[in-house]
Amino acid sequence: MKGKKILGLLLAALLFTSKAGAWDDVTVTVGSETVPAFVETGVTYVQLTALLEAMGGWETQWDREARIASAETDLFTLDVPAQRNYVLADGFSFETGRASLLRYGRTYVPLRSVANLLGAQVDFVDWDTPMMVQGAGPAACTEEDFDWLCRIISAESQGESLMGQIAVGNVILNRVSSGQFPDMVKSVVFDRKNGVQFEPVANQTIYNEPTEQSVLAARLALAGVDAAGESLYFFNPALSQGQWVRANRTYYATIGCHMFFK
């Protein structure tokens, strides 16, 4: 993925030119290219077309009637509806937290969430320190393990949002990377060291064909999209009390029907 070769997105300069409450223009550099950007109420927005071109050479099309900007990335078709707080990856909604904005006839998107969807992580220290966006590259995964990753995501979180399904995938991959669990996806899924780890293994739904969205979620989790941080556990409080997890692990976030813990 060409975008993965862009390991740094540097906030090179901050040019505050407007009064309080208005847009504050900033200069963002991706590799050697400058991407127009601004800050509004603490959120950095970048021009979508310039960002996609700099990260992967992806061309953006604008549907004037539908008011949607679209691009074919290496992982999915990206659609950005104007002034909505979500984007679409292959038609599946991915929440961005803040709505995209139109400025001077151009689409601007929240930097952190869209960079995350593209498999990059934004680290911001302070206004005098560069903002870095780094992509670790896709995680190694065999075809067999990819299949099991898709299946566990689908069985555990069918009906959840794309973000919720990615979060389940994050937990599986976090366990693979942790010394506390087996080092292959299939082994993590079927781990029985302290009892069956995942309900779909017990009720056999792990063998159901994964949904199209869960396949996308697996690809995105492997590409570095982060919804669950360093979480190693999750449970649905409607189905389980999660007493051991609550007592022994640190709460991270609730996404859809699941609570995630580090």
CATH superfamily of the largest domain: Copper amine oxidase-like, N-terminal domain
Number of domains: 2
Which outline best applies? elongated
Q: Average pLDDT across residues? A: 86
Number of DSSP helical runs = 8
Radius of gyration: 19 Å
The CATH class of the largest domain, by name, is Alpha Beta
Find the count of extended strands (DSSP E, 2+ residues).
Answer: 16
Main sheet attributes: strand count, strand direction, barrel closure: 6 strands, antiparallel
The largest sheet has its strands arranged as 1-2-3-4-11-10
Stretches with pLDDT under 50, minimum 5 residues = 1-21
Task: Give your account of this protein's structure.
The protein is an alpha+beta fold and 262 residues long. The chain has two domains: 2-134, Copper Amine Oxidase, Chain A, domain 1 (2-Layer Sandwich); 143-261, Arc Repressor Mutant, subunit A (Orthogonal Bundle), CATH 1.10.10.2520. It has helices spanning 48-56, 111-117, 143-157, 162-177, 185-189, 199-203, 212-223, 243-248; strands spanning 9-14, 24-30, 33-40, 43-47, 60-63, 68-72, 77-81, 86-89, 92-95, 101-103, 106-110, 121-123, 132-134, 233-235, 251-255, 258-261. The two termini are 30 Å apart. 42% of the residues are buried. Residues 1-21 have low confidence and may be disordered.
Layout of helices and strands, plus pairs?
Elements (H helix, E strand, L loop, with lengths): L8 E6 L9 E7 L2 E8 L2 E5 H9 L3 E4 L4 E5 L4 E5 L4 E4 L2 E4 L5 E3 L2 E5 H7 L3 E3 L8 E3 L8 H15 L4 H16 L7 H5 L9 H5 L8 H12 L9 E3 L7 H6 L2 E5 L2 E4 L1
Antiparallel strand pairs: 1-2, 2-3, 3-4, 4-11, 5-6, 6-7, 7-8, 8-9, 10-11, 12-13, 14-16, 15-16
Helix pairs in contact: 3-4, 3-7, 4-7
